[in-house]
Amino acid sequence: MKPIFKKPILALAATSLLLGTAMLPLQAQAHRTWLLPSATQLEGKEPWVTVDAAISENLFDYDTNALKLDGLSIRGPGGTTLQPENPHNGRLRSSFDLKLAQPGTYRISLVTESVMASYRQNGEMKRWRGALDAFAREVPADAEDLRSTRLHSRLETFVSSGKPGDAATKPTGVGLEMLPITHPNELAPGETARFRLLLDGKPAADLAVSVVPGGVRYRGVLNEILARTDANGEFTVTWPRAGMYWVGASYPPRAAAGGNTQGTPPAPPERRVSYAATLEVLQ
Q1: What residue ranges in 217-282 does DSSP mark as E strands?
Q2: Nearest-angstrom CA–CA distance, 275 and 273
Q3: Do 154 and 178 meet the contact criterion of CB atoms below 8 Å apart?
Q4: Can you spell out the DSSP letters for 189-212?
Q5: Is the residue at 105 inside a domain?
Q6: pLDDT by residue (tens digit) across 50-59?
Q7: What range defines the domain where residue 142 resides?
Q8: pTM of the shown model
């Protein structure tokens, strides 16, 4: 699989799911990766939806870089895999169109796997980032003090034509995923929605979840909602208002600044997984 991110972008994507503090000023925001559909609930005969893919500092703004569409997967209401139409890779965003030929819910996912590594060669410290299949070829066999982290990220959004369905929302059992208990296309202001996070198909307990509404640039503050999964991997969100929302989580938890008690940085995890979804809350 080709890497989705160019090397300069990968470093940003690796930090895209850092959880901030509610009401953070704009300059303190982390970059976030996201998919943004033109609509999530559509009516009529065979409607169309356009989806953008980008990484940005101001949520849902086109201010940093586009995401490549390698790793894009679209699951239709019948469980079949669909292909996007009119794909385009721009400077600040990528986009594609999708025809909703059948009534029901469509799960749109952008999945990437990569490796970040550091090692010493001939006394010189070097760093490497790239695709899984390139790791063994490009990192020298005689590398010393090799430390590597395998990265798995999943970006998602859900769109429905007519009455929503559940067939497309079933998890794959790989990486960090969100299993909707409340359907993701049936969200309303003032109501509480419930979701379950799964890690490789099993409940992801005691995991921090960040929920950020769009329109940050106009508010000047994040208005972040923080949640935590219970023993069953479940968490709830009460939507304060209508709009688009970014929901993100990562595992394992990131080490606190300052390293361990000896003052040395902790060893990188062997694997880091992340998840982010764009959901729309409608009146």
Answers
A1: 225-228, 234-238, 243-251, 271-281
A2: 7
A3: no
A4: TT-EEEEEEEETTEE--S-EEEEE
A5: yes
A6: 999 999 999 9
A7: 7-281
A8: 0.83
